[in-house]
């Protein structure tokens, strides 16, 4: 019975401190965010209802979930340090409870937080982000401008397009080509000086074109000024911020999107893979950071609670730094996205192992 009461006590302390700290930081973040964006809200006449319900109501879970592993770490260090300062931990361990058993309620609370975070990341937040990102694009961000040149894409199996440049404001592409391949052989090629989207006909209009149709040894060539046609791509493929679009996809949609981008030969695939793997690595970091936090703060420190909290904040920023550095290796180097995202967790897992081991052995 005493052990069950102890478990409930630590779980309650853990979750209570975590949600209180997270709520406090969210309130502070909202105040700073409002002060930063108030000019945009006024200038673009954003309705108060949309500011509250479409933006900030969806900003709260997004921000809270994004930093939840770090606030887990700080919360663990804060309340465990206080327990240690009040000699509660000494009394618990002196009663015959091992340090391993002492970690159990921490892991239970960490499981609750990690489970909530996993569910939010892959099911709830993507749909909530639809309203938030829509609001940001309409009232905060400037109009998206497609800046890529010499665009090469595979739009479907065996079909490739090329633009020298594309203007997403007017939906016009210059120096366009479209090729079809069958069994590795070219069967069709279209070259055009200009192609633009006709919103009334919902078709592409091709101007100053040259067509080659190849069937075995037979080849037909055709020239012309203009014709209307459809392709397997639309202006929507060039008229969105992909980073925002990815945030609005649940796990299944994100997987399908990544496969489609691989098929197209997109150079941005690694960014989407990083987003996918982060949705699992961040929640699971909760367990690692909890173990480190308990190991560091379950003994009295000479400098008191302040030193331990300061150490916790320092390690939190170290974790963020490792995450940024490792993802840079993936985006600018040849490190696989999965490995890059998990490098910080792997490093901190090793640190956690030795800290816990030292705490068990050292008593």
Structural description of this entry:
The chain is α+β, with helices and mostly antiparallel strands and 363 residues long. It folds into two domains: 2-141 and 269-362, no CATH class; 149-235, no CATH class. It is 63% helix and 18% strand. The protein contains ten helices and six strands. The protein has helices at 2-43, 48-66, 68-85, 88-94, 99-139, 242-247, 251-264, 269-297, 305-332, 337-362, and strands at residues 149-156, 159-167, 172-182, 185-198, 203-215, 218-229. It has a six-stranded antiparallel β-sheet with strand order 1-2-3-4-5-6, with no helix packed on it. β1 and β2 form a beta hairpin. α1 (2-43) runs parallel beside α5, α2 runs antiparallel to α5 (99-139) and α9 packs antiparallel against α10 (337-362). The longest helix is centred in the first third of the chain and has 42 residues, at 2-43. It is elongated and about 90 Å long. The mean pLDDT is 84.
Draw up the topology in text.
Blueprint: H1 2-43, H2 48-66, H3 68-85, H4 88-94, H5 99-139, E1 149-156, E2 159-167, E3 172-182, E4 185-198, E5 203-215, E6 218-229, H6 242-247, H7 251-264, H8 269-297, H9 305-332, H10 337-362
Antiparallel strand pairs: 1-2, 2-3, 3-4, 4-5, 5-6
Helix pairs in contact: 1-2, 1-3, 1-5, 2-5, 3-8, 3-9, 5-8, 7-8, 8-9, 8-10, 9-10
């Amino acid at each position: 019975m005493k052990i069950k009461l102890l478990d409930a006590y630590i779980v309650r302390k853990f979750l209570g401190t975590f949600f209180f700290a997270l709520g406090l930081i969210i309130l502070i973040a909202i105040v700073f965010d409002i002060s930063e964006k108030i000019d945009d809200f006024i200038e673009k006449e954003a309705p108060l209802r949309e500011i509250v319900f479409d933006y900030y109501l969806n900003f709260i879970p997004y921000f809270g979930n994004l930093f939840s592993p770090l606030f887990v770490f700080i919360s663990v260090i804060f309340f465990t340090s206080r327990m240690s300062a009040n000699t509660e931990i000494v009394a618990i361990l002196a009663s015959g409870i091992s340090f391993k058993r002492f970690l159990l309620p921490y892991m239970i609370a960490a499981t609750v937080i990690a489970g909530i975070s996993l569910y939010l990341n892959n099911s709830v937040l993507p749909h909530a982000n639809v309203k938030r990102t829509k609001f940001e694009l309409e009232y905060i961000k400037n109009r998206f401008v497609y800046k890529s040149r010499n665009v090469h894409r595979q739009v479907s199996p065996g079909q490739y397009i090329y633009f020298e440049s594309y203007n997403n404001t007017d939906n016009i592409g210059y120096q366009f080509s479209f090729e079809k391949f069958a069994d590795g052989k070219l069967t069709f090629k279209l070259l055009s000086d200009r192609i633009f989207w006709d919103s009334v006909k919902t078709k592409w209009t091709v101007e100053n074109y040259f067509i080659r149709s190849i069937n075995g040894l037979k080849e037909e060539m055709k020239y012309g000024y203009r014709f209307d046609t459809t392709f397997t791509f639309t202006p929507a493929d060039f008229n969105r911020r992909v980073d925002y679009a990815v945030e609005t996809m649940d796990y299944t949609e994100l997987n399908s999107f990544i496969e489609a981008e691989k098929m197209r030969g997109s150079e941005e695939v690694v960014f989407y893979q990083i987003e996918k793997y982060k949705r699992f690595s961040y929640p699971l970091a909760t367990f690692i950071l909890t173990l480190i936090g308990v190991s560091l703060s379950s003994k009295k420190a000479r400098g008191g609670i302040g030193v331990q909290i300061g150490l916790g904040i320092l390690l939190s920023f170290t974790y963020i730094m490792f995450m940024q550095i490792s993802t840079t290796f993936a985006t600018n180097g040849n490190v696989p996205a999965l490995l890059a995202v998990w490098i910080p967790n792997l490093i901190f897992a090793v640190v956690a192992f030795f800290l816990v081991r030292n705490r068990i052995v050292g008593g």
